[in-house]
Recover the amino acids of this structure.
């Protein structure tokens, strides 16, 4: 369930900006722009260089916070002049921390481009620095419109959209704002939590994968296998009675040993808050907490994740391997997110993301806080990847970007890769915009 229309304003480099000869260093040059500049001597540097995933530990030359497209342009020209990378950052949630690089200038959009402007029709302009939680909150405050995005409030809108729609993510330039199609708030929503013991994981998963991808558009759900059990989280746009009838028909409620079952019929904004609380621990007491999100500086979360698109149902052999893997480490989990619905109605060649035809996406992940857990966690991840690869197709979701993925170009973009490479050649023939997994030149 993503977006029906996004117009992206891609920054074109203005050649009319003249840099004075007095700007002897990169910092002089940045200082002459209208952006706030945090260099390595600034007190804010130690927190501003961080991204959400604290596994990433990089030291950029500076962080620049522009408040106009003109300032963005000037920053990029400084980077070109002094031959350093410019790295756009919005949510700072790239799984491999690709919004910060050593010796680069991070162009942080979160202060100057954190806006939401309803247009009086059914559309709104959103700045590329806005996070999903802020977008949900602002849209609710402005009159209750909704936008179908993700469940994590701290994820940046532009990273999410460009992964799905346009192959953005630092490939071609810096987006400053996006034109969004908004939707009327559902009359009510039903938030669904179900949980079974781990011993039922394979049976639950078999029922879920036969049901969730073809469930009505109003129902979306994901399933999570972990050592403690198997959980389903769902959101239904409608009343509890209808949600329950759909779940009854799926057979899921007949699986023995169900240890938790809760339906909350409530406004959309409360469901968005509850999902946010689940992923980030924010308080569900007020919608404004969606906007505030977690304080990533205090969060200290590290994680490693990868993904697979799944075009045909997995059999019990594969599901048992997954179940065994999550049983081995209490920090690991495997999440299955249903596709179908509007995702599958958009042709795979209509946007950058090629995996739309899938039944669902698997995200396999491990999270930790203590640095001594890094090595065993990364080893668990690598082992699971090696175990699953033979059963999976070469297709993955770029927003769960993974530097250990083999053949990542075709996995992320499939048959769209060649077209994207042509775009790259046209707009960035010197590969100025690059990280380890940006679209390569043809
Ligand atoms: C930036 O420029 C201002 C004057 O506009 C100056 O006071 C300040 O020292 C400069 N900062 C750096 C880091 O050069
Ligand atoms: C520079 O930034 C300030 C706010 O930080 C803003 O008021 C001003 O209009 C900006 N100037 C230009 C030329 O963009
Ligand atoms: C720019 O930097 C890259 C590596 O950071 C280097 O390979 C290249 O030679 C540099 N170009 C110039 C013109 O200095
Ligand atoms: C939502 O409520 C309005 C007003 O009661 C009603 O006209 C509309 O049909 C409802 N929509 C749905 C999808 O139930
Ligand atoms: C679930 O169990 C009930 C009661 O035993 C039965 O009537 C129903 O057919 C079952 N539903 C499915 C989908 O298997
Ligand atoms: C986040 O936490 C850090 C460290 O405790 C603190 O300095 C900073 O002010 C906090 N930021 C916000 C927005 O609360
Ligand atoms: C499950 O599927 C895999 C191929 O994906 C196959 O190798 C295996 O034999 C199948 N197992 C069963 C029980 O059908």
């Amino acid at each position: 369930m993503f977006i029906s229309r996004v117009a992206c304003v891609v920054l074109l480099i203005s050649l009319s900006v003249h840099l004075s000869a007095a700007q002897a260093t990169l910092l002089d040059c940045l200082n002459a722009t209208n952006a706030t500049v945090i260099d390595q001597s600034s007190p804010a540097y130690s927190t501003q260089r961080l991204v959400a995933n604290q596994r990433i530990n990089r030291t950029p030359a500076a962080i620049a916070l522009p408040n106009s497209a003109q300032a963005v342009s000037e920053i990029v020209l400084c980077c070109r002049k002094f031959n350093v990378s410019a790295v756009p950052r919005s949510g700072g949630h790239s799984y491999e921390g690709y919004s910060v690089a050593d010796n680069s200038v991070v162009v942080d959009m979160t202060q100057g481009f954190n806006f939401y402007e309803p247009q009086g029709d059914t559309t709104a302009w959103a700045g590329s620095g806005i996070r999903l939680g802020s977008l949900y909150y602002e849209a609710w405050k402005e009159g209750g419109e909704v936008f179908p995005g993700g469940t994590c409030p701290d994820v940046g809108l532009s990273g999410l959209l460009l992964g799905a729609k346009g192959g953005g993510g630092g490939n071609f330039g810096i987006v400053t704002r996006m034109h969004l199609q908004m939707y009327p708030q559902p009359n009510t929503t039903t938030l669904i939590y179900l949980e079974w013991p781990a011993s039922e994981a394979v049976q639950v998963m078999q029922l879920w994968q036969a049901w969730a991808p073809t469930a009505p558009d109003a129902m979306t759900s994901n399933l999570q296998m972990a050592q403690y059990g198997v959980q389903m989280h769902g959101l239904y746009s409608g009343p509890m009675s209808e949600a329950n009838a759909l779940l009854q028909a799926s057979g899921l409620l007949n699986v023995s040993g169900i240890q938790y079952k809760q339906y909350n019929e409530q406004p959309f904004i409360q469901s968005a808050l509850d999902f946010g609380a689940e992923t980030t621990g924010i308080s569900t007491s007020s919608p404004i907490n969606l906007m505030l999100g977690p304080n990533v500086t205090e969060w200290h979360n590290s994680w490693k994740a990868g993904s697979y698109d799944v075009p045909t149902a997995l059999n019990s052999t594969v599901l048992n391997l997954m179940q065994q893997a999550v049983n081995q480490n209490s920090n690991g989990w495997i999440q299955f997110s249903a596709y179908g619905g509007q995702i599958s109605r958009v042709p795979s060649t209509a946007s950058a993301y090629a995996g739309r035809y899938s039944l669902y996406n698997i995200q396999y992940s491990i999270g930790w806080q203590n640095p001594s857990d890094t090595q065993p966690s990364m080893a668990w991840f690598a082992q699971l990847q090696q175990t699953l690869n033979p059963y999976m197709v070469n297709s993955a979701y770029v927003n769960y970007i993974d530097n250990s993925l083999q053949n990542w170009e075709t996995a992320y973009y499939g048959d769209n890769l060649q077209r994207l490479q042509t775009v790259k050649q046209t707009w960035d023939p010197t590969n100025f915009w690059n990280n380890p997994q940006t679209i390569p030149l043809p």
Observations:
- The first strand starts at residue 6 and ends at 10.
- The chain has 15 helices and 15 strands.
